[in-house]
Amino acid sequence: MHDIHDDINILDFKKYNCFYVSKTRIEDVGDYKEFSLKQINMIGIDMGTQKTTESSMTEMIMWTGAEDEIDSDFKKVINRFKRTMHRGAWGMTPGHEKEKYFYKNHLYTDRARKAYEQGVKLYAYGGFVFFELPDVLN
To answer: How far is it between the farthest Cα atoms of the chain?
Structure first.
């Protein structure tokens, strides 16, 4: 019997700050890029980061990869995450705060809301755009 613990390498997780959940086991790869390209039906989670020295954090992103339809088990996982989150945030670029755009489908957790209320600046995954959260929870 295969144990998931055989596949988890905490050093790789720390190095790449992400992980995949896949129904197939991929063994014949030489590096991270090759591994990513061979992932066909999976969920990927890129972990956000928090910089306490700058009082900022970048968002975590969850994404799927599929040749056709997203696997029904993965849809259940995604929907479960969505039900625990709040929706909607204003996005803007530094120096252009008056030009903000409302992302109605942007999701965030209670913990992100609390951090924001304590003055932590919330950045998009790429680290350039930052978010302001609405006053009312959705």
So the answer is: 57
Burial of 116 by CB count in 10 Å (0-12 exposed, 13-18 middle, 19+ buried)? middle
Using DSSP's 3-state secondary structure scheme, residue 30 falls into: coil
Residue 37: which residues within 8 A CB-CB, separation 6 or more? none
Question: How does pLDDT run along the chain (138 residues), one tens digit per residue?
Answer: 444 445 555 555 566 677 777 777 777 777 777 877 777 778 888 887 877 777 888 888 888 877 778 888 888 888 998 999 999 999 999 888 889 999 999 999 998 999 999 999 999 887 788 999 988 665
Nearest to 48 by CA among 37, 56, 40, 59: 59
Degrees (nearest 5) of the Cα angle 47, 16, 21?
Answer: 65
Question: Which phi and psi (to 5°) does residue 87 adopt?
Answer: -120, 140
Phi-psi region of 50 (alpha: psi -120 to 50; beta: other; left: phi over 0): beta
CA distance 129 to 125: 8
- Whole-angstrom Cα Rg for the chain: 17
